Amino acid sequence: MRDDFTDTHCHFDFPPFSGHEVESLALAERVGVRKIIVPAVTADRFVRVLKLAHDYPPLFAALGLHPLYIAQHHEPHLEQLAAFLASQPPKLVAVGEIGLDLTMENPQFERQQRLLHAQLALAKQHRLPMILHSRRTHDQLAAVLRRLALPRCGVVHGFAGSWSQAQAFVRLGYYIGVGGTISYPRAQKTRSVMAQLPLSSLLLETDAPDMPLAGYQGQPNRPERIAEVFQVLCSLRPEPADEIADHLQRNAQALFALSF
């Protein structure tokens, strides 16, 4: 069993981790989770996420305005994001979580698109990678990324699209986030995609406390369950577990410039 994982997407600033950071990190470390990237979702969480990264060595921060919270985002929040990025806080490794989402009742899609373009411009200005959210918007997001000359790429997190959609992102140089969805046997499309993509394009993530694995439905997801995501990925792939793990760690280092 490997003992060096990076959870590239965990909302550690939410319950059940808030107020239980030390215990939660100890549980994660027990299975070998050495580093965790915490993406913010709204401007009022920027300071909290940066403080977590400052206070706890395994944690790293990403700052962004999540499309699911589009009704809460306003122009001053974008200005706050720009100011924080300009200040270059220690352990800030990405702009995220940002992206597009068409699963909401009132998605305000034009506003989402404007907000995404503004945040991608900030990522370009500060040469930072992006943590990208995309639900029912893979084709639109790929089209946006194709048009922009971004110096750093990013990861399409929690990917559950088709093989051709995954290939479109990979051809652009983007990584694909592998999470708990692959633990469900019924998720044949996603499992097949993750089995076939080049290892050089994959990143491991939990999206905790969201995206619970099979067998944990109704419970908050947790970063220590990354080990189980890894085991499922190994069962789907032809390569040896050590080779898969080495690729996953190198990919995290390459995208987020993490030191191991």
From TrEMBL:
InterPro entries: DNase_TatD-rel_CS, Metal_Hydrolase, TatD-like. A divalent metal cation 2 binds at residues 133, 157. SUPFAM superfamilies: Metallo-dependent hydrolases (SSF51556). It holds the Pfam family TatD_DNase. It comes from the Bacteria. GO terms for cellular component: cytosol. One of its GO terms (molecular function) is hydrolase activity, acting on ester bonds. A divalent metal cation 1 binds at residues 9, 11, 97, 207. PROSITE patterns: TATD_2. Keywords: Hydrolase, Metal-binding. Belongs to the metallo-dependent hydrolases superfamily. TatD-type hydrolase family. This is Putative DNase. It comes from Serratia symbiotica str. Tucson.
